[in-house]
């Protein structure tokens, strides 16, 4: 029913199969036929899995939930790019109209030391939760808040904070980075809170703690290649990394940990 | 008269003083005792995360479970449009009473007054709390918070963060939760699914959960168990809910004695992207906020195949503005959805499937452009220039939604009107709870969309986020004290207790059963079949004959499922198909109850529209004499339920025929 005119595709998929985190994995080839250009990439996987189940084989495990680009759960490394060829979209929002009949598509999980594979295309990203636990919050208990309009915030600051806060925690930035660095993810949270008066109070400790935790989780160093920004589905900007570096530098000079 | 098995525990006093009095007289638990009281929270959405953070801050020992890989991915993340609060920042006449009134009326007079009033009272504090956490709400140039309108109201009380309000609110609650995790006050169990509740001596004392990575079953004790597990719209297969949203937790609780309230109350949202083919796995919402600036229409001529731009103004039927001049495009969801269905059924639908109507931004794009031109004092700007400036305004307000629409349909909504159609979105029904949010099983609570409490037969837009956070931040921290203050002498019960062992064995048996069917059809096959029955016969319009046949069909499908489902892989590994199978097994039981409830309710109200009960103009016809009650169902065994009624009393609002004309 799409306005673009539906077409049918036949494709060859090379999909990473790995039984569990300890097993060795390999690419497995599958042919899929009659894939509508109106389908999403994950719906194409639904079709493949239905076929595998009907043939008595094991379907391919992959993470997904909202299927509208916001939960950050889907995570496929498609033809060498996290979330595939289209800019600014997650795997679940990638539609088959981005591919041509006869294409061969290689699908792998996120690759990073800090994101071990659980099975097939699903990886463990709990390191991100631990980074947030180390400082990605404002220490305010429920019930302690003043009236919301008490502190005025310039619209531009609020907008910048929102843009940083739009990160969905998918990990594509890490998967895109040759060093497996999580700088874009961490800097997005650091920036959001540093830009708002509510977050400023703890800004110094926050950046040091979060960067410390990031290192501890085994993420690599940032060498400014910019691959993360290019692959981020939510357009999180490198400016956040620059801001975080400034915050980090000034904090490490002045902050005394208690 | 209410059933003797239902005590809503509504505090005495006038509606304005009930909550205040309750708070100042409820039993407290002293800090030392809190440290030895354990609370299990299933769910990390707005309701669960906010409850977990707040209870941990108070000193309780908390465990949080969610089936996603991170609590931040709970389905609340997907909420788009906004959250209501009676702040009256716009000085447009809003008040706690008005929000209370709008919610009761919007719910078609089927919600409990005391709960809704409390919700309105705490709504303002939610916004304060979120701002303090660093939630970046939209703001005006002066630095104050911005508001928009939602359906069923005539004031601007909706706070928002572009089209990603749920995301921002959830990330706020999630960061509060993770702070407690970091401090060791909350223990987190992501990728865990609760598969049963453990009840000992009539009280909820823990859960059985499956570690979704290893497949191992685990037993967890808690002095109280809070279910904040979201709604069950996925019983329809296609809905705007996330793929994993399910009824399992609530259903297991129901089977262990928690009554299920108003299961048939389903919200069908009017503005969703239409189904594009059989491959469709879920439906995508286009936020209600779009109805602030989008006008809904169909051609006046049935079967008109012209492009929308070629249909002149006088040949368009802006049917909501025509039928409901007072509220226009901002009528409540149930009304807007039925009106769209009516036009499409009558042959006026658009697009290839004819199951769609237009949502058109052209007029407002031009209006905004003109305002911008005036602001910038442009002399005689061209039409193109005005449109371009208007487009920017629209982009700033709804950019992410427009992008999403384009990505899914391949059409550019800045150039063409959107095509939209109603889709299953939210379930007002859920576990029956009293004023304290406790179910009929002592010690077991239900929060957020999982309970039935505040929205009656129809929820107003931007009120679910409000309710989830109200329940978690401001209600449960007080009401749980009423119960836990009596539990300070209860020592942690060993999970070797026979009740735990038995519950675990039952879960194991159910899993073994699913694995051993080794049939010929996939889980999705059954889920789709169930969804079709539900949508056709228990969807936007229902009637006696359809519901009766649906019940028989569902029973048959359930039998087939247990004979012929194929679950690949094994139970002791990461196995998403097994997870789905267990959820669909529960949907197959719930579907029957929904139909029974819809059949029982011989009236139309809110989202429940029985074709036999409508006015001459096709509006819902309530029967307040016979049906002004909450239907709370007690399960005797699968397929056999007993109905209990909680009578609804309206002492502060005059019950009236709902009119938006
Ligand atoms: C697309 C969309 C847009 C919406 N937009 C708005 C809006 O603009 N404004 C508004 O007010 N409302 C909106 N709503 C409604 C609102 O988002 C939801 O009602 C609300 O977020 C539900 O929150 P919750 O905390 O009750 O549940 P959820 O956020 O659904 O969380 C459920 C949690 O329970 C867990 N869980 C479930 N079952 C189990 C189990 N068996 N074991 C372990 N864990 C389990 C999940 O992992 C998850 O953490 C929208 C809904 C949708 C679908
Ligand atoms: S910064 Fe971008 S790529 Fe990285 S986690 Fe956030 S949204 Fe994903
Ligand atoms: S499934 Fe939620 S972002 Fe893709």
Report on this model:
Chain A is of the alpha+beta class and 258 residues long. Chain A folds into 2 domains: 8-118, Roll (Ubiquitin-like (UB roll)), CATH 3.10.20; 126-254, Fumarate Reductase Iron-sulfur Protein, Chain B, domain 2, CATH 1.10.1060.10. Helices cover 35% and strands 14% of the residues of chain A. Chain A has helices at residues 41-54, 126-133, 155-165, 172-176, 183-195, 197-200, 203-216, 227-231, 239-254; strands at 8-17, 26-36, 77-78, 81-82, 104-108, 117-119, 122-123. In chain A, a hairpin with a 2-residue loop joins strand 6 (117-119) and strand 7 (122-123). In chain A, helix 2 packs antiparallel against helix 7 (203-216) and helix 7 packs across helix 9 (239-254). Chain A is elongated and about 60 Å long. Chain A starts with 7 loop residues before the first strand and ends with a helix. Among the domains of chain B are: 269-423, Succinate dehydrogenase/fumarate reductase flavoprotein, catalytic domain (Flavocytochrome C3, Chain A, domain 1); 497-622, Methane Monooxygenase Hydroxylase, Chain G, domain 1 (Up-down Bundle), CATH 1.20.58. The relative contact order of chain B is 0.16. In chain B, the strands form 5 sheets. Chain B has a 5-stranded parallel sheet with strand order 5-2-1-9-17, with helices on both faces. A 5-stranded antiparallel sheet of chain B has the order 11-15-14-12-13. Chain B has a 4-stranded antiparallel sheet with strand order 16-10-18-19. In chain B, a hairpin with a 2-residue loop joins strand 18 and strand 19. The site of FE2/S2 (inorganic) cluster (FES) has 13 residues of chain A, from loops.
